[in-house]
């Protein structure tokens, strides 16, 4: 399970880094990102966690496209 945890942390850090150039500002982006990750904090099934990571990767690609 520690592999999934490290993947989640890496995606979160990458999103926060990309959020520095977000058009509405870093504080806006950080609070929304934090809420999204906090909402998924209670996930225990490995499949659910992988789906959440995939969703975060998709968001990351969309932000890079901005």
From TrEMBL:
Pfam families: Complex1_LYR_2 (PF13233). PANTHER family: ELECTRON TRANSFER FLAVOPROTEIN REGULATORY FACTOR 1 (PTHR21024:SF0), GROWTH HORMONE-INDUCIBLE SOLUBLE PROTEIN-RELATED (PTHR21024). It comes from the Eukaryota. One of its GO terms (cellular component) is mitochondrion. InterPro entries: Complex1_LYR_ETFRF1_LYRM5, ETFRF1. Belongs to the complex I LYR family. One of its GO terms (biological process) is negative regulation of oxidative phosphorylation. It comes from Arthrobotrys oligospora (strain ATCC 24927 / CBS 115.81 / DSM 1491). Transmembrane segments: none annotated. This is LYR motif-containing protein 5.
